[in-house]
């Protein structure tokens, strides 16, 4: 059986419910057992995340991308791509499609955004106990660059060729 093709497109306000659902499922997968559920899946937190995602979609300051398979949103990223801000704020893939290439396709699209903006370096923070995500980012060329509270800071030298990530310092 072949894996369906993932296409990446800009998010629209109509995607908000799908993005919020993916965000909630993804966060539950890595926060469970580490922090109280109310902090990542309580009603107030879910509403806060939904409102933040809606603001990002409407903003000129952020780019919100959706990974789509068979007309269903399976992941999303919220990123900045300006000379003074190169941060990946959110990168979530529906746990039901992990390890099927959706994350890699979405990551490549993020790199394309940064490359088009003329950025040479990107940054992110990932929850330290989330070994799966840290391994994914490392496979994409990100390197750990310290800690911020319970998160690991990572950096990526934006490659000139999407197929050959450069390690920071190379």
From TrEMBL:
On whether Acyltransferase is a keyword of this UniProt record, the answer is: yes
- A single GO molecular function, which one? acyltransferase activity, transferring groups other than amino-acyl groups
Q: Which domain of life is it from?
A: Bacteria
Task: Tell me any Pfam family this protein matches.
Answer: Acetyltransf_1
**Domain N-acetyltransferase: start-end pairs:** 6-159
Q: What are the UniProt keywords, alphabetically?
A: Acyltransferase, Transferase
Task: Identify the InterPro entries for this entry.
Answer: Acyl_CoA_acyltransferase, Bact_Acetyltransf, GNAT_dom
Alphabetized Gene3D superfamilies for the sequence? 3.40.630.30
Q: Under which name does UniProt file this protein? A: Protein N-acetyltransferase, RimJ/RimL family
Source organism per UniProt? Actinacidiphila alni
């Amino acid at each position: 059986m072949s894996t369906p093709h993932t296409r990446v497109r800009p998010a629209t306000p109509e995607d908000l419910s799908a993005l919020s659902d993916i965000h909630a499922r993804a966060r539950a997968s890595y926060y469970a057992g580490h922090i109280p559920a109310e902090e990542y899946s309580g009603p107030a937190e879910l509403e806060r995340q939904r409102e933040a995602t809606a603001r990002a979609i409407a903003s000129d300051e952020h780019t919100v991308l959706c990974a789509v398979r068979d007309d269903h949103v399976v992941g999303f990223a919220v990123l900045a791509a300006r000379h003074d801000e190169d941060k990946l704020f959110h990168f979530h893939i529906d746990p039901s499609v992990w390890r099927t290439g959706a994350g890699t396709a979405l990551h490549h699209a993020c790199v394309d955004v940064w490359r088009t903006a003329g950025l040479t370096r990107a940054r992110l923070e990932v929850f330290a106990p989330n070994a799966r995500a840290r391994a994914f980012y490392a496979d994409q060329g990100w390197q750990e660059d310290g800690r911020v509270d319970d998160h690991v800071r990572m950096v990526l030298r934006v490659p000139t060729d999407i197929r050959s990530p450069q390690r920071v310092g190379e």
